[in-house]
Known about the structure:
By secondary structure, the protein is an alpha/beta fold. It has six helices and five strands, in the order βαβαβαβαβαα.
Amino acid sequence: xxxxxxxxxxxxxxxxxxxxxxxxxxxxxxxxxxxxxxxxxxxxxxxxxxxxxxxxxxxxxxxxxxxxxxxxxxxxxxxxxxxxxxxxxxxxxxxxxxxxxxxxxxxxxxxxxxxxxxxxxxxxxxxxxxxxxxxxxxxxxxxxxxxxxxxxxxxxxxxxx
Length: 161
Ligand code: COA
């Protein structure tokens, strides 16, 4: 049986830290579906279609990784995609509290879905999408922190369309 995991996030934009989590996830699962959340509360810099496009371009050569956008509950997406687990990355102890709450809440919403955590690579523990947006917006070089596919989008700047 093919084992599928959903890796959810806002991905505004996707970073090499996220890519690292996906690639680690592929050691545990046959298929990783990257779930790009609309997340209007965060007022993302890039619209949902752009964020999805960046993820798809990033994994264009990786057939075991697909991407979908979603606006509802993560557990509903997990059902829809017939996923066995939710995949998340832990960068530091400070991530734990939030991840623990989210995993517990998702378990309450659906007892059958497990959350699997992988440890992010040390080089990327300090990376977050917010820093990428900020540094890039001020003209800094983020080329070693994001997939090559993301660079033209960052160069073009904010696009909520
Ligand atoms: N490498 C780099 N950055 C990472 C990272 C990693 N391994 N892991 C997390 N981050 C960063 C993200 O880039 C993001 O940075 P930012 O806030 O500076 O932009 C931050 O850490 C956390 O964001 P992310 O991982 O995208 O998660 P999120 O908190 O934005 O997304 C959802 C949370 C989308 C998974 C959650 O809100 C959700 O499931 N929503 C659907 C609705 C639902 O089901 N709600 C109930 C959930 S209990």
